[in-house]
Amino acid sequence: MADSPLIIKSKEFALQIIHVCNYVKQNKKETVLTNQLLRSGTSVGANIREAFYGHGTADFIAKLQIALKECSESEYWIELLIESDYYDNRDVLDKCIEVKKLLVASINTAKSRMKSKPGW
To answer: How far is CA 63 from its chain centroid?
Structure first.
């Protein structure tokens, strides 16, 4: 579990979110968008971690879907920060999209396995 690319990338994303939010709060004095981003951006990894301890495949998928929603919300807040000129480094947006793609692939894989192997 600890070596899962999804867990590793989502933690990297959360740490990047923390740094971005701290930067914007300190240098741009913006807190409304950053507070929302901090909540959703760090929630992604927390939900992924929780998924690995779920009660079966359906719970695993449900937790990953929550993480996907949080990731999508984070993408929105990042876009707003960039487009409003509060933040100009698109690396965090790229990392968010990378995590989102991994989540979609993981959800699809888990759903396929669940269909092909009932009880998995």
So the answer is: 12
